[in-house]
Amino acid sequence: MCLGIPGEVIEFLPDQPDLARVNVSGVRRVINVGLLTDDLPEPGEWVLIHVGFALSKIDEDEAKAALEFLESIGQAYADELAALQESRIE
């Protein structure tokens, strides 16, 4: 199962402006934000992530609600976090 997961933008990589470091439930990963060039997120803002790409910006309330839902489904979310932890874009 593939899920869209909320992540909080921590910083942009200075030498690669399409890449940002995000925090997803304690997992820090670099993702591609190139699809959001018309409305790039700022550090501290939230994005919806799928397969290493930020698909859209979301507000903090949406992020919290999505995380609560994802945590409630149990193993599928744990599997998705494990896959995210193993992925590498850096």
Q: Describe it for me?
A:
The chain has 90 residues and is of the alpha+beta class. 28% of the residues lie in helices and 39% in strands. The chain has one domain (5-86): SH3 type barrels. It contains two helices and five strands; from the N terminus they run E-E-E-E-E-H-H. It has a five-stranded antiparallel beta sheet.
In short:
The chain has 90 residues and is α+β, with helices and mostly antiparallel strands. The protein is built from two helices and five strands.
Helices and strands in order:
Layout: E1 5-13, E2 16-24, E3 27-32, E4 46-50, E5 53-58, H1 60-72, H2 75-86
Q: Main attributes?
A:
5 strands; globular; 90 residues; SH3 type barrels; 5-stranded antiparallel beta sheet; alpha+beta; 2 helices
